[in-house]
């Protein structure tokens, strides 16, 4: 494989001059010299170092994605949207796990800033009243000063563009569907405590139950965003009270966990209890789960497009109002009208 020194010798110029031409430096180089260097590089099959180019141009064709839980398929769909769009534009995606910790988001952002990433996408929802949010906002501002555009897929107070779905409205619409089917006693299995997405989805559920005059029949129970949490929550519901008309979980995985617990207890779903979730992940389609389809792939793709466009349009514009993509209700076999 040819080196930069090989190219400089072939073109009859210094290594520094060859580097300026091949790595896009703004230092003036004559047209004749530039042509000789480019011709030499082509003859030798030389490819410039992406890292070297990043050091010269102060940016790279790298887009970072920071997720809350790397094994959660919710983030896999978002990451696929980012990567498909990035690949088409000649960019590379770097996926990083934050384990739902703001401190990890800060360090991951700083690392990507040091790698001269073109942009960083925060795919996780963050926490309500998080004491470390100001520190994260400061890190976002510092990255922006270095040319790194941050984008959040949830509304967070970190002063960057937001591309999101309406979690509150999604939960409202799902609850409305169940109420319209005659369900009255409905249990909501919450997501992780304190997370913005948990609070938004619970609020949407309670909004619709209150409007329907069913607030006293609505119950929220501790849960999480994984199969095990939904399964455990359903077992607690079964052990402590009469069967509810329906169980709504804060996401599809928890809903499938609850569905499994009910079926293990030989409870007919949806004959005795309806079950529904939110997200419309592949597992929901596999088990016939009623859910709300969120535009996860589109969120990732649009966020990547925003980063790519910013890289070709000069300084990033002000964040502006959030961009909210639509969701849709997807009724399937786990819900039915009450007799």
List the helices and strands and how they pair.
Layout: H1 4-11, H2 15-22, H3 31-44, H4 50-57, E1 62-67, H5 73-88, E2 92-97, H6 102-114, E3 119-122, H7 133-145, E4 149-152, E5 163-165, H8 167-180, E6 186-189, H9 196-211, E7 218-221, H10 227-240, E8 246-249, H11 252-264, E9 274-276, H12 282-287, E10 291-293, H13 296-312, E11 323-325, E12 328-330
Parallel strand pairs: 1-2, 1-3, 3-4, 5-11, 6-7, 6-8, 8-9
Antiparallel strand pairs: 10-12
Description:
This is LacI family DNA-binding transcriptional regulator. With 339 residues, this protein is of the alpha/beta class. Helix 10 crosses helix 11. The chain starts with a helix and ends in a 9-residue tail after the last strand. It has helices spanning 4-11, 15-22, 31-44, 50-57, 73-88, 102-114, 133-145, 167-180, 196-211, 227-240, 252-264, 282-287, 296-312; strands at 62-67, 92-97, 119-122, 149-152, 163-165, 186-189, 218-221, 246-249, 274-276, 291-293, 323-325, 328-330. Strand 3, helix 7 (133-145) and strand 4 (149-152) form a beta-alpha-beta unit.
């Amino acid at each position: 494989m040819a080196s930069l020194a090989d190219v400089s010798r072939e073109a009859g110029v210094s290594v520094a001059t060859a580097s300026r031409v091949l790595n896009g430096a703004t230092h003036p180089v004559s047209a004749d010299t530039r042509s000789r260097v480019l011709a030499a590089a082509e003859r030798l099959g030389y490819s410039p170092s992406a890292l070297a180019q990043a050091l010269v141009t102060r940016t790279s064709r790298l887009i970072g994605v920071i997720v809350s839980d790397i094994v959660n398929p919710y983030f896999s769909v978002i990451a696929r949207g980012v990567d498909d769009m990035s690949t088409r534009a000649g960019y590379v995606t770097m996926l990083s796990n934050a384990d739902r910790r703001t401190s990890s988001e800060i360090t991951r952002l700083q690392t990507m800033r040091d790698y001269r990433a073109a942009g960083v996408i925060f795919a996780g929802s963050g926490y309500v009243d998080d004491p470390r949010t100001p520190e994260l906002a400061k890190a976002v501002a510092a990255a922006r000063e270095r040319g790194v555009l941050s984008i959040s897929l949830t509304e967070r107070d970190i002063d960057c563009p937001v591309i999101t779905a309406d979690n509150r409205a999604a939960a409202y619409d799902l609850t409305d569907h169940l109420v319209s089917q005659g369900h009255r006693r409905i249990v909501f299995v919450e997501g992780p405590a304190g997370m913005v997405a948990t609070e938004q989805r619970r609020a949407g559920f309670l909004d619709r139950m209150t409007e329907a005059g069913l607030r006293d029949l609505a119950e929220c129970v501790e849960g999480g965003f994984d199969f095990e949490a939904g399964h455990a929550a359903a077992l607690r519901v079964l052990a402590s009270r009469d069967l509810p008309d329906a169980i709504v979980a804060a996401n599809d995985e928890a809903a499938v966990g609850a569905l499994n617990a009910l079926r293990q207890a030989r409870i007919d779903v949806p004959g005795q209890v309806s079950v529904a979730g939110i997200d419309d992940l592949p597992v929901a389609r596999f088990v016939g789960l009623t859910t709300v389809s969120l535009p996860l792939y589109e969120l990732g793709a649009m966020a990547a497009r925003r980063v790519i466009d910013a890289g070709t349009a000069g300084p990033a514009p002000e964040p502006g109002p959030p961009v909210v993509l639509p969701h849709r209700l997807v009724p399937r076999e786990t819900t039915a009208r009450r007799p």
